Amino acid sequence: MKEIIKKTGLDKDYIFNLSKVLMFRRFKPTSLAKLEDARAEYIDSLKGIGIRNTGMLLHQCKTPKGRTDIFQSASIPENELLNILSMADLMRLAGLKSTKSRLFMNAGIKSLKMLGRQKPEKFRNLLEEIINRTKVVKAVPTPKEMASDIAWAKLHPVIIQGL
User: Fold this and answer.
1) Could you give the C-alpha distances from 79 to 16, 19, 54, 110, 159, in angstroms and in order?
2) Band (84; pLDDT cuts 50, 70, 90)
3) Section 58-85 average pLDDT
4) 161 near 62, Cβ under 8 Å?
5) Burial 35-74 (b: 16+ CB within 10 A, else e)
6) 147 confidence band (pLDDT: 50, 70, 90)
7) 19: Cβ–Cβ under 8 A, 6 or more apart, which residues?
8) How far apart are CA 25 and CA 46, in angstroms?
């Protein structure tokens, strides 16, 4: 930390607090069993080849070849694997759980990269329309929550090529 302070010239408390924020917002893999829309047989199939959480899945499916290997060895249709991957990618955002990722997917968002490209107010209005029509979730995200989700999504690196 001393080296960072010396190189940046920033205050020690600022660097320390920034570090705490980033640690809180870091990616925490989720058990595949918590993915609401994924069929149980697909989750069991993934577990059968050693993939138990979203972190392992994202790591194994980084490339198109990796995805092909997974859907062939796990006997999962490619479109279903892509849906599971989309949900796993969206859930890299701190505090974003399966239900909210399903809402975003209903709005056509398949990755954090796509989420980061949205305009907060326009996207929130789209989500409100989807919620009123489908009742996927009970409450519309607040404007501040939407702006925060989009801002944090922009900071996440792309993991899955072509998603």
Assistant:
1) 43, 38, 17, 12, 18
2) very high
3) 91
4) yes
5) beebeeebbebbbeeebebbbbbbebbeeeebbeebbeeb
6) very high
7) 1
8) 27
